[in-house]
Hints:
With 246 residues, the protein is of the alpha/beta class. 27% of the residues lie in helices and 20% in strands. It has one domain (6-243): Alpha-Beta Complex (Spore Coat Polysaccharide Biosynthesis Protein SpsA, Chain A), CATH 3.90.550.10. The protein contains eight helices and nine strands. 38% of the residues are buried.
Amino acid sequence: MPTLPTIIVPARLASTRFPRKLLADTGGMPLILRTAQRLDKEAPEFEKFFAVDGDELGDVLSGTGYNVILTNPDLPSGTDRIAQANEQLNRTEVINVQADEPLVKREHILALAESLQVPGADLATLAVPFAKVEDFLDPNQVKVVLDEQGFALYFSRAPIPFCRDSEAEQYFLGAESYKPLKHMGLYAYTAPFLAAFAGSKQGVLEKFECLEQLRATEQGFKISVSVVSSGSIGVDHPDDLKRIEF
């Protein structure tokens, strides 16, 4: 049986839209521990580590029995944080689950592991069809477009693909309509990709859109995208906590 990828959760306290959100109270427990417990439930057979930006998060996790790796707090992205952690772990395949995804599902983790095996893939990620026009138009929800082989062509906060001759609503009319895809911020990586990414500079498109995955596409890496049936709820704002039952 092939060795399973290792799950590494990048975790930092700095957050522009929701400061210190990973320590936000979720029914008597910090958000970061909700995500950790969810992973225990949904992916018990996977090895797990938390790549943290300091002792404050690290102590919360290690104090409840989770494996912690301290990383440079000034790293620009979660992928950079995972790459630094994997310099110690030296795993051949790694899955990135965001620390603010307390409702991640088993199907997501298994889809990532499978998608990374697609020939030519340097990394893998997930997408789910948008269900509402307002979500498609929301710049806080990232969109992705794919080529015919299921590799990512581009990611954007703008509504892509843009249909010049009709309104966005036309995408959502009828079963045969094209369904734009929402990108889910979970990834799987090969070790060679992580090593290359760790030594690279932020790209122009990455800086424009504030999307770290664009550094990979700018550099020519192939991102395999698995379209799953259901999404999750990430915590970006305090109001997002009201949408989750703990």
